C-alpha cells in the first residue's frame, strides 16, 4: 500500500483539499502501478517549514511503498506531486522535497481484532 505524507507551510483554509487528495491518489497509483484503492494520502497544512532560510511556500513529502519504486518512477512521482502542489497550493516546484522508502512486505503487519 503506497502512502504519501505531505506537509506544507501553506494554510489549507479555503483550499479544495479533496481535489489535492484525489489528484495525488490518481498520480501515485498510475505511476507506481498499484490500484487507487490501496493508495493513502495524508495532507497537513500550516506546518512551520523553512526552506533555504525562508518561510515562503514550501512542502516536504515522504512516500512509502511496498515495491514499485525505482529511480525512474521516483523522478516521475516527484514531477507529478510537484505539479499538484504548484497548481493547487502555489508551492513552487523548487521548494518541494520528496523522500522515498521502498519497504519490504515483512515490515507491515495486518491489524487483528480482539
TrEMBL record:
Coiled-coil region(s) at which residues?
Answer: none
- State any GO CC term: extracellular space
Sequence intervals crossing the membrane: none
Question: What's the superkingdom here?
Answer: Eukaryota
Could you state a single Gene Ontology molecular function term? Answer: phenylpyruvate tautomerase activity
- PANTHER family hit by this protein: D-DOPACHROME DECARBOXYLASE, TAUTOMERASE_MIF SUPERFAMILY PROTEIN
Official protein name in the record = Macrophage migration inhibitory factor homolog
Q: Could you tell me which species this protein originates from?
A: Coptis chinensis
Q: What is the lineage of its organism?
A: Eukaryota, Viridiplantae, Streptophyta, Embryophyta, Tracheophyta
Amino acid at each position: 500500500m503506497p502512502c504519501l505524507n505531505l506537509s506544507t507551510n501553506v494554510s489549507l483554509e479555503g483550499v479544495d483539499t479533496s481535489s489535492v487528495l484525489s489528484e495525488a491518489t490518481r498520480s501515485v497509483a498510475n505511476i507506481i502501478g498499484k490500484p487507487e484503492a490501496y493508495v493513502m494520502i495524508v495532507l497537513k497544512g500550516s506546518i512551520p517549514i523553512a526552506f533555504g532560510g525562508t518561510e515562503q511556500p514550501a512542502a516536504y513529502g515522504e512516500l512509502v511503498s511496498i515495491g514499485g519504486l525505482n529511480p525512474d518512477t521516483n523522478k516521475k512521482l516527484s514531477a507529478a506531486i510537484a505539479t499538484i502542489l504548484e497548481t493547487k497550493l502555489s508551492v513552487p516546484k523548487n521548494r518541494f522535497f520528496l523522500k522515498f522508502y521502498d519497504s519490504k512486505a515483512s515490515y507491515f503487519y495486518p491489524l487483528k481484532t480482539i
